[in-house]
Structure formats: structure tokens, C-alpha cells
Design goal:
Elements lengths: L1 H16 L4 E3 L21 H8 L6 H6 L1 H4 L3 E10 L9 E6 L4 E6 L9 E9 L2 E3 L2 E3 L2 E10 L1
Parallel strand pairs: 1-7, 4-8
Antiparallel strand pairs: 2-3, 2-5, 3-4, 5-8, 6-7
Length: 149
């Protein structure tokens, strides 16, 4: 009886360690007015320079509507961040970026942004991407990020 209980507990522990593969799909929302951004007076970083150069700006919907056109390319996006599920023992963490036209997962090696933080992200588009069993159809690998609170 004692052996059966011990084996049952071991099975429960091991079952909790196995993670199912889950498809995470980026979603597209109806177009909304773009976020208003002001050009900095003296651009200091690459991201600030790109903000000034891209007044029209690339949207998440642009990438989601034609991911193959952006695959492997460096892009700059601006939107609100929602932290994703943190993975243990993995140095990459996902967070969701929303800009009013859609949502896309951003993979970072830095700390995740705060909930609702306005961020400008520079990164590379990857199609598809996977972290520890989670599959992302389209994602951005973060190179640089600026947060505004």
C-alpha cells in the first residue's frame, strides 16, 4: 500500500512537469487610430531615430497580414505591453504587444515590461517560433526596447 502511494505521488509530480504543446496564435483587431507619438528633440538611440523617420509607422496588422514579407527583417513597433507566461529555466520570455490594429508576441531576454506599459520595440520578425513547447505563428525577437509609463 505504501509503495502504491509513493508511486502515485511520483506520477503526480512528473505529470506537473510535463508541459503540453500549445499553439499561440496572434490575433488581428479592427483598425483603430494610430497612437500619437512626438518626435524627440535630440534623438539619442536607434529607436528614437526610427520614431522620427517613421511617422506613418509600421503596424502589427501589416506584419500579421503578410508575415512572409517581413520574415527575418528588422522592424520597429509601438504599443501596449501585456506580460506573458514566464518560463522557468529559459532565458527568453514572451510578452504580448498591442497597437490597436492587432497583437503580436515579442520574445525578450530582458525583464518583461510592466502591464500596460507603452513600449517601442525594435526586433526581428520570425515565422514561426517556439519556446519550451509553446508555438508562436509570428513573433518578434526583441533587439532593443524603450518603455514609457
Amino acid at each position: 500500500m505504501r509503495l502504491a502511494v509513493v508511486l502515485f505521488l511520483i506520477m503526480l509530480i512528473l505529470a506537473g512537469c510535463v508541459e503540453k504543446e500549445e499553439a499561440v496564435v496572434a490575433t488581428e483587431k479592427k483598425p483603430a487610430p494610430p497612437l500619437v507619438e512626438e518626435a524627440p528633440e535630440a534623438p539619442e538611440t536607434q529607436l528614437q531615430k526610427e520614431k522620427v523617420e517613421k511617422k506613418a509607422g509600421l503596424t502589427i496588422a501589416d506584419i500579421l497580414n503578410n508575415p512572409a514579407a517581413y520574415e527575418g527583417k528588422e522592424v520597429t513597433l509601438r504599443g501596449r505591453a501585456t506580460p506573458g507566461l514566464a518560463f522557468e529555466f529559459v532565458d527568453e520570455q514572451p510578452y504580448l504587444l498591442s497597437d490597436g490594429t492587432g497583437e503580436i508576441w515579442v520574445i525578450t531576454r530582458a525583464m518583461m515590461p510592466m502591464q500596460g506599459a507603452e513600449v517601442t520595440v525594435r526586433g526581428e520578425v520570425v515565422v514561426p517560433y517556439q519556446i519550451k513547447g509553446r508555438h508562436y505563428e509570428v513573433a518578434i525577437i526583441e533587439i532593443d526596447r524603450e518603455e514609457e509609463y
